[in-house]
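Thanks for the sequence, V.! I ran General stress protein 17M-like domain-containing protein right away. Repeating your input here for the record:
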Amino acid sequence: MTTPFGGPARTAPGLPNLPTPPTGWPVGSYATYEEAQRAVDHLADSNFQVRDVTIVGVDLMLVERVIGRLTWGRVLASGAASGAWFGLFVGLLLSLVSQGGTSFAPILLGLGFGLVFGLIFAAVTYRLSRGRRDFQSVSQLVAGRYDVLCQPRNAEKARELLAKLAMGSSPA
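Predicted structure:
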């Protein structure tokens, strides 16, 4: 089996290779992922078989948080910086395979050309957008709630441990 990028698929032993709906009985429901993670951590601290547990995000949403206004200055600075990093990388590779030994010329040339091309590419791309997206944002996949499921053989024990957590007592 391969991934969409052509590499071999890596899964944990015993888990299905194809996307499948989760199985198990609900043992807890939480408003945030942090709370669900805390519940599973509590189960692990109580020597519970956490291999039987799954956290399931329900009512998924894609949240795009706007982090700033996009200006020509930011566009050009970002393009120049990313181009410079790529140019530096190419320059370092070229300096490793060059005949001159420890010459800094390929590094400086790569850095310079990368900076210029990054700047030009960013400017052209931003100009072509014609101001349709003059902001920067980050996207995040979040859920409306997080359910903790457990395989039926241990679900009752998980419920008891999570009830103790909810009441504020720690494992004995």
